[in-house]
Design brief:
By secondary structure, this protein is α/β, with parallel strands linked by helices. The protein has twelve helices and ten strands. The structure holds pyridoxal-5'-phosphate (PLP).
Amino acid sequence: MAPYWTDHWGNPSSRQHRQGLTASAAVALARRQIAEALDIDPDRLIFTSGATEANNLALLGHARTRGCGHLISVNTEHHAVLDPLAQLQREGFQVSLLQAQSNGLITPTQLEEAIRPDTRLVSVMAANNEIGVLQPLKELAEICRNRGVVFHSDAAQAFGHIPLEPDNLGLDLVSLSAHKLYGPKGIGALVIREGVQLQPLQWGGGQEAGLRAGTLPSPLIVGFAAAVQEAMADRDERHTRLGGLRDQLWNGLNDQLPAVERNGAAAPCLAHNLNITLPGMSGSRLHRSLRPHLACSSGSACSNGAPSHVLLAIGRSRADAEASLRLSLGRSTTANAVEQAIASIVEAVDAQQT
Ligand SMILES: Cc1ncc(COP(=O)(O)O)c(C=O)c1O
């Protein structure tokens, strides 16, 4: 990214001078690299500021082309989906939220039963950001296709971690975020299937096929593509390695803390996620005593300290949701770090019991 902040500072839309052309070529290459990882045509990628904006563009942008009607999603979605849907509700759309089962998953039958003749769009995330479960996208997409309904997926947590090919899965709109795969914050993309109608959310210089006006941030786009390339290079190996470490973490906690419970289905699930509840513990004390040792949370970074709506949605009480830990592993996580995490959590629990 560094040269694009300094030496190659041109605006990628300024094609009349060398600085602009250099930036433009870098953006074009990055677009091709990201598209290749998704096995799509580069023209189908619209750069946005992240998955939040991509979700807004997908949901508001498509629904508004239809004027009115019915929209379907799930009660465990990220707020970046739930809140645009709430806005559409204020604009006159009807919204149904499917109730996730206690394992965090929805079934194709649930979707089938919820679709109505006036259903315009369905949005179901690929991987849950708190409990890691992977929704059955291919089956859900097929139902939508058969019923002529546009299918969107917020794949912010999935891209770079598990195989994600929009056409293979049958997805019409897919939201991506660079910082979920070690890329820079402030850049993401919406993948659009040809023929899906979208209205822009903002108007201006006509960038990104008129769907997302605004000067493209070439350093962030270059960084996004570099992160994607690195993620694709070690994705499968990382998945296997982190799955092993996550099992080590769960088994270690389970051995020493008989009351511990796991949130969300153990499979299908992201390999680097473990979400646990320690029933009866004070959530605030637990988090306070873990803070010096572990960077963990009870819910999403966007929840402003409220108990996790995902854990509440899958049937946890407020107290249990607060006494929960969302633990994530990553490229730099080692077996030694996992043992330290287990020891810290056990110590924090013991401290409350004595
Ligand atoms: C599932 C999901 N969707 C959307 C977002 C928001 O992404 P961004 O920060 O790129 O706007 C996040 C991350 O916080 C997420 O986990």
